[in-house]
Design goal:
Number of helices: 30
Keywords: ANK repeat
Low-confidence stretches: 11-15, 326-332, 344-355, 363-369, 414-436, 477-483
Distance between the termini: 81 Å
Pfam family, one: Ank_2
Strand order of the largest sheet: 3-4-5
Structural class: mainly alpha
Organism: Fusarium tricinctum
ANK repeats: 117-140
Mean pLDDT: 80
Shape: flat
Largest sheet: 3 strands, antiparallel
Protein name: Ankyrin repeat-containing domain protein
CATH topology of the domain at 1-109: Serine Threonine Protein Phosphatase 5, Tetratricopeptide repeat
């Protein structure tokens, strides 16, 4: 039932807009509860209510209502709706061919009128992959097939991105269509056509309730390849042109692991097999970061090209082997690629890669050039998402080979997300380790962040890693009387492991690393100016989160903290009656540990 105030506003005052500044009809759903309200709004007089009524009918597929609206004397087929869309654009968008046919018979209809964002009905038809609509609209003299939207994105860009071969052919035959025109990001139709070979760029198909699969339309890869060939045959095409991020069509093919397209492109004189992207990556770097299994074939193809050097580094000092072995799990053993590298004549002492195979051949674990910001191979391994048995074996082998275990990173003092100089990757899909961190630390801190790295933590401690190496916090707001960036080791682990206000459950889940560190002598006191780990734990306990303090006290002995520091912390809470639990815990710890 319609509430009386809303009904009166519509009937007596002609109220039409919702409190959100949108047509009220957009807030109404086609159910029995809102039916009376919808009828009142639909029947309001004027061109604006009429066009919104048509859009409502098209959206909910009420064909009878759409016919009635088209017959209204106040309906103007050239009048845009609230979003700037004309009736013909709405009919195309909602795939209503009969309404499109009726609208095109009206003299006031301009099928080339753009909406607010510059999209025309033809853009929408191409976007919806509707060949019948495209053919119909291209017959209209007012339709400009080469028109771009506000992002300089044309119909040809869209057809190439969707892999629609027939539509691409139709558009290339139209006057005003430019095959080389870049959009605002620098992507040309050729760039988009190469990307269309990726199935994730196509509509997701429902498999069963709540489950979708992204397969792409049947034969889409072959169609996309034909589009690429057609575009490459255009006389004015430059197949080596980069986007604003420095990605050429070849780099897109490498990112997708597509040797078939790469071979087409590499056969052209205007394609440089060694051209660099915005962060200095060559196509072979990008091929190494892609996921598909075919990347091995692709990298072999690239290595056959003149000027391609497998030892080349990007702006951060990474070789292709960093990308292959220093990032995420691969579909194939890295040994295969490393063997290929060795056959290509790569000097062992010039390779910076965490690979057991290289170490077995005598590679120096202290590589000549570290990764950016002084990350060692141990840092790289421990920054990789997850921690596998293979990574642990690699750590052990590096340690056995004599790698330094207490080296510090050296992160920049800057806002890392706003300074272009420090943006490590701004190219979607490139998978590699980000060497920037909010803290400068030794590998031991990274090994202490979560139970998945316990084996690595034990290996480092067994090898003599400094369990009290200070941590330098770079981009975190610090508490305490000094707010010092230089923190005790355990304090650094606290801040890197948890949110600003972790719950007791969060702390208990990370109990094992703390037990191991305390068994190996990590200190609860600190001789610097910042708060000690014991003080940090007490501060957490002040608002009821006592789990951390309990973990520390239950697993500590006199080798972890001095009695004088315990007394100092106790004195801070002596006059705080509301914190009696903290004083009780500290008093009991002092009695148990320092009784003699």
């Amino acid at each position: 039932m319609v509430e009386e105030p809303a009904k009166l506003l519509i009937q007596k005052l002609g109220a039409y807009w919702s409190f959100r500044g949108m047509p009220a009809l957009d807030e109404v759903y086609p159910d029995e509860h809102d039916k009376e309200l919808a009828d009142l709004l639909i029947n309001l007089p004027g061109p604006q209510p009429a066009i919104d009524a048509l859009r409502y009918a098209l959206q909910w597929k009420y064909s009878d209502l759409a016919t009635r609206v088209l017959e209204r004397p106040d309906f103007d087929a050239s009048f845009p709706d609230y979003y700037g869309r004309t009736p013909i654009a709405c009919a195309v968008f909602y795939n209503q061919p009969e309404v499109v046919k009726l609208l095109l018979q009206r003299p006031e209809v301009d099928a080339g009128t753009p909406q607010k964002n510059g999209l025309t009905p033809l853009h929408l038809a191409v976007e919806e992959r509707s060949l019948p609509f495209v053919e119909t609209l291209l017959k209209r003299p007012e339709v400009d097939a080469g028109r771009a939207d506000k992002h300089n994105y044309t119909n040809l860009h869209c057809a190439a991105e969707n892999g629609e071969l027939v539509i691409v052919k139709l558009l290339l035959d139209q006057p005003g269509v430019i095959a080389t025109l870049p959009d605002n990001t620098g992507m040309t139709p050729l760039h988009w056509a190469v990307r269309s070979r990726n199935h994730t760029n196509h509509p997701w198909q429902p498999m069963q309730k709540g489950i979708f699969r992204c397969n792409g339309p049947p034969g889409f890869r072959a169609q996309s390849l034909d589009i690429i060939k057609i575009l490459l045959a255009q006389l004015e095409i430059n197949a080596g042109i980069p986007t604003k991020k420095g990605l050429t069509p070849l780099r897109h093919a490498c990112l997708l692991g597509d040797p078939e397209v790469a071979r087409l492109l590499l056969g052209r004189r205007d394609v440089d097999a060694n051209a660099r992207a915005s962060h200095g990556q060559t196509p072979i770097h990008i091929a190494g970061s892609s996921r598909p299994r075919r990347r091995m074939k692709l990298m072999g193809l690239l290595l056959e090209q003149r000027g391609v050097d497998i030892t080349d580094v990007d702006n951060d000092g990474r070789t292709i082997l960093h990308y292959l072995c220093g990032s995420r799990q691969q579909f194939y053993p890295p040994d295969l690629v490393i063997e290929t590298a060795l056959r290509e004549g790569v000097p062992i002492d010039k390779i910076s890669v965490n690979a057991l195979f290289l170490l077995s051949l005598g590679a120096d674990p202290m590589v000549s050039t570290r990764l950016k910001y002084n990350n060692s191979l141990l840092h790289i391994i421990l920054r990789t998402p997850g921690f596998s048995q293979e990574q642990h074996e690699l750590m052990d082998e590096l340690i056995r080979k004599g790698i330094e275990i207490d080296t510090y990173t050296d992160s920049p003092l800057a806002n890392l997300w706003k300074e272009d100089e420090y943006k490590i990757e701004d190219v979607d899909g490139i998978h590699s380790v980000d060497p920037v961190s909010g803290s400068d630390c030794t590998p031991l801190l990274l090994a202490a962040l979560g139970e998945s790295r316990l084996k690595g933590l034990k290996s480092l401690l067994h090898a003599g890693a400094d369990q009290n190496a200070p941590v330098i916090m770079r981009n975190m707001e610090l508490e305490g009387s000094t707010e010092s960036n230089r923190q005790a080791f355990l304090s650094g682990v606290f801040r890197e492991t948890w949110d600003v206000e972790p719950s007791d459950d969060d702390m208990i889940q990370n109990e094992k690393p703390f037990k191991i560190l305390l068994q190996h002598g990590s200190r609860l006191d600190y001789d610097g100016i910042a708060d000690s780990p014991l003080q940090d734990a007490c501060k957490a306990a002040e608002d009821g989160r006592c789990a951390l303090l309990k973990i520390l006290l239950d697993n500590s002995t006199a080798k972890n903290v001095s009695q004088s520091h315990v007394k100092e912390v106790l004195s801070e809470y002596t006059d705080k009656d509301q914190q009696s639990r903290i004083t009780d815990m500290l008093t009991e710890f002092e009695r148990k540990v320092f009784a003699n």
